[in-house]
Amino acid sequence: MNRLVVISNRVTVSTDKKARAGGLAVALQDALRENGGLWFGWSGKTVQKPSCQPAMVTDGNVTYATINLSRKNFAEYYNGFANRTLWPLFHYRLDLTAFSKQNYSGYQQVNTLFASKILPLLEDDDTIWVHDYHLIPLGEELRRTGVTQRMGFFLHIPFPAMEIMTALPSHRSLIRSLCAYDLVGFQTENDLRAFFDYIVHEAGGKIIGNHRIQAFGRTLKVQVFPIGINTEAIIRETLNSSRSKMARGLMDRPSDKDWIIGVDRLDYSKGIVERFQAFERLLENYPAYRGRVTLLQIAPPSRSEVPEYKEIQHTLEAEAGHINGRFADYDWVPINYLSKSFTRQNLVSLYRNSRIGLVTPLRDGMNLVAKEYVAAQNPHDPGVLVLSRFAGAARELDSALIVNPFDFDSVADAIAKGLDMPMEERRERWSAMMETLRANTLGTWRDDFLKSLNDVR
Ligand code: GDG
Fold this sequence. Notes:
Helices cover 43% and strands 19% of the residues. The chain has 16 helices and 16 strands. Helix 10 packs parallel to helix 11. The longest helix has 21 residues, at 307-327.
């Protein structure tokens, strides 16, 4: 294979000891190492006057190139158009979507800046892989400067229905730029269908079979690549973590008390407020569980400069306070809301020691927490996954208890069913899900995408 060039909003430099590489970063680093590679993106720093040249770090055959952004760029591109327009819109939250010409122009400017900074670093045979909604126009910017190399794009978040997409004033130019890539990858068939719908009914394009479409004067491949997890690594981490202090503490807790776990970046798309309300409904409808189950919600803050994210933190604190005030007793608290992050090792211990994994996003591209929860279970005594039908993961993990997160009664019923589920049924459901997680890992996702991109021409 040719040299791989990965471009994403943020870069995880392997030599940065402070950076904790997540699963995706590790998988991409592996692919970069295979044939040598370059990872380009924003350093995560904003400065008064960004320098003209990217900062370069080389580790073996992989080079990391990062640029700083000005505060204005960061406000308009990242906090503005990416996270106050595209993120809520693509997650069906028109009510939270802010439309601003200035932010859109800042978004375009940063994409143009990315293109101009990466251009001198490109080699003729490179395969270029661009990630996520921050960088949709990048491919078109690169084509404009004469780049002819193979270019793929993967959208990690949902692609919304046409009716939602067309609410964006700049929808046409955004989707036209998406069509400048040779391959566009989506998480699920739903996303692909929504994209086809836009191409045929809004853009006047054509589906020409074999994963190909024609639109805006270009022919490109579009395909579904559901992202996976590094299943074996999670199993290993879970086994290693059993010796940790936290795991030992967890095993000592009273055996008549069960945990329900939720783990999410603090984000309104994850449906955490609605999850608290569904849990309240469980305590109302099934009084026998009072004093017996605790919802452990881990929600490390994210994007805290965006007003909607500050607000959800307050709403959650108020909701947890209200439910705890209503039901808590001297020896039991219904909701344990932890607004901080945990080490990977502690996280997998918590997954394994929780009877229910409660994953109820209102919309989610995939949701890796659902997959990690399943992989971390004890095969002899697995917990039950309660999963929103609006998470991309629900397509593959259909042996979970699938729920509608807007219907609190049904979520409460599913939790109760999970808490009382006989061992045999738990094992059957878990085994079916593990089979999928072993067959479609993060590595197969990456390899399938790159193979399809390399087959383009
Ligand atoms: C986007 C899409 C898509 C969370 N808290 C802690 C922690 N985490 C880790 C989880 C998981 C990751 O963060 C979150 O991944 P998700 O997939 O659930 O969600 P997004 O961040 O929104 O990701 C999503 C994904 O991209 C990949 O394509 O699935 O749909 O929105 O891995 O474990 N990790 C640690 N401590 C925490 O406290 N160590």
